[in-house]
């Protein structure tokens, strides 16, 4: 599944366009490399998402086949780390 679509389906971004813009601005990395919106994500991939004031480190455990309810989103990934981003001065 495309990276931008996955971030949106798992409720990690509010819209797919926010996910795409985050990828375009190098705020998303997949397996240590900059994540393009069109990159294919597989189970086992590690994603770092720098949005909403934090760097979220995720490990994808499964790829959803359809829409995902917000309450079930965490069934598809595990949060391996979360660090606060430095605020601009």
Written overview of the protein:
With 89 residues, this protein is of the alpha+beta class. The chain has a single domain, classed as Structural Genomics Hypothetical 15.5 Kd Protein In mrcA-pckA Intergenic Region, Chain A. The protein has 2 helices and 5 strands, in the order H-H-E-E-E-E-E. A 5-stranded antiparallel sheet has the order 2-1-3-4-5. Strand 1 and strand 2 (33-34) form a beta hairpin. It is globular and about 40 Å long. The chain starts with a helix and ends in a 5-residue tail after the last strand.
Termini gap: 38 Å
Overall pLDDT confidence = 94
Shape: globular
> Helix content range of the residues, please?
10-25%
Radius of gyration: 12 Å
Beta-strand residue fraction: 25-35%
The CATH topology comes to: Structural Genomics Hypothetical 15.5 Kd Protein In mrcA-pckA Intergenic Region, Chain A
CATH A-level architecture: Roll
- Total of DSSP H or I helical runs spanning 4+ residues: 2
Tell me the series of helices and strands, N- to C-terminal.
HHEEEEE
The number of E-state strands comes to 5
Strand order, largest beta sheet: 2-1-3-4-5
Helix-strand makeup class: alpha+beta
CATH homologous superfamily annotation: RNA-binding S4 domain
- Give the total of domains: 1
